[in-house]
Amino acid sequence: MRDWLTAMRWVWRALRLSGLPAPGALGLRVVRLGVRHGWSMYVLAALWKDLAPDEAALTDDRRQWSWRELVLDVDALATALDRMGVRRRDRIGLMCRNHGGFVIALLASMRLGADVVLLSTRFDGRQLAAALDGHDVCTLVVDPEYEAHVKEAGFRGRVLWSGAFADREEDDAGPNLPGLISSTPPARIGRRRPGALIVLTSGTTGAAKGVRRTLSVKQVAGIMVSLVSRLSLRTGARTLIAVPLFHGYGIAALALGLALRCPVALTRHTDGSGLWAIARRTRATNVVVVPTLLRRMLDASLHDPSAAIERIVSGSAPMPTRLIEETSDRWGEVLYNLYGSTEAGLITIADPRDLRDAPDSVGYPVHGTEIAIRGHAGDTLGPGKIGEVVVTGPLVFGGYDRARLPPVSAHTFATGDKGWRDDAGRLHLLGRMDDMLIVGGENIYPQQVEDRLMALHQVVDVAVAGLAAEDGGQRIVAWFVLRPGHEIGASDIASVLPAYMRPTRWTVVEALPRNAIGKLARGRLASGTIDTGSGP
């Protein structure tokens, strides 16, 4: 009980920092809702429905919801699902782009106490079948554009189409969310404790695995304080979430937006002009992105009057130094870079000062989280020494869902990322442990090479890999995405790289194989050619 009260004090501290009123009637209402429904995102929406019913809550490409409208739609869908036979701990899969239907289905599932499995929209039929079977999904909420994948997967459970939420006016294949919501008056549903969120790993280094999340107030208290204080977050700030909600990064951004009563904007678009258009239309002051999306927005904004961007939060992939500089030139020091993982949650935050002083760092650990750099023998390494990043903290998971793998012990997780800490304590990442190349006896990290090549004006994106050389080592090859009408030559490369780091062969391609969250899938760089096939 003492730990719970301490955690609640941390939460209230975070909320006060964000501008919310001090506890009182608000606190009692939160406790009552929590006792009735358990702690979930549904409770947050229900709280603001009571306290700010007519304020904007959610906007997508088609419409806007107030808090009252959002919760009414959620309760209507929860009633419909309850009448269909969905029960606590049943598993509902969500395979949707970013739109209101995703949020409504997510919150309705939480209201019923069902477990929610977040499915990548990049899955093909085979990958979808593996995820549905491997995580015992009995109901699938899906956008109509993925109908062929659902058929290929051979799913025998209940399928609900997102319909008009995904710009599809009618669905002949079966029940759809808009129809269920409009035809079902909300009814009283008995008390049900919230289920779990099953977040799948990115799968860039192997098959996607499920991480089960059942967050408590104690777990999130320190993280909330870190996010609110380090990012200077404020309640009611208009927030565009451009990253996929099926990813842990996206769902965490949504949860924080709900906690702080932020009007959240979502879009199905991933092109720069589409993202910039909704940012301007909703007058977003906070933007949640990954580096590839930030690059697209930055390019689109150059031809359009600037919006009042106060805060850009990026994560999930390395941030090129040039992109940091161009963002600062465009909007000022508004950029924050986060580092985390599906298994360990949020690990570090780099604020604008960190990015100014050490642009290649990911900053300092969040409250309650500790980082160690471990050597090959398991020893802890000091500043400047390179090793594996090992995380200890409240959000470290206990093991993979439905997997026959050993559990994680003592809230400690070896990330598989290679990095080092500087004398100030900031963390610097060098890529995955198995990414290191050996060229002419020198250890070379692809991420360092890529960051230097990104300094070239004509380079939009780049990836490097190592191929076997005759001397038993490796030689560096590179794939470039260039600005239209530009070329790249040996002299350009030599201007930013010493001889031992230069690729001996390179190719210009239209796109690199990145997953939906912008992370480079290095496994698809092989034999000097590039496989840009879809993946998770």
Automatic annotation (TrEMBL):
The keyword Nuclease does not apply. Keywords: Ligase. One of its GO terms (molecular function) is medium-chain fatty acid-CoA ligase activity. Residues 52-400 form the AMP-dependent synthetase/ligase domain. Pfam families: AMP-binding, AMP-binding_C. InterPro entries: AMP-bd_C, AMP-bd_C_sf, AMP-binding_CS, AMP-dep_synth/lig_dom, ANL_N_sf. GO terms for biological process: fatty acid metabolic process. Residues 449-519 form the AMP-binding enzyme C-terminal domain. It comes from the Bacteria. Belongs to the ATP-dependent AMP-binding enzyme family. This is AMP-dependent synthetase/ligase.
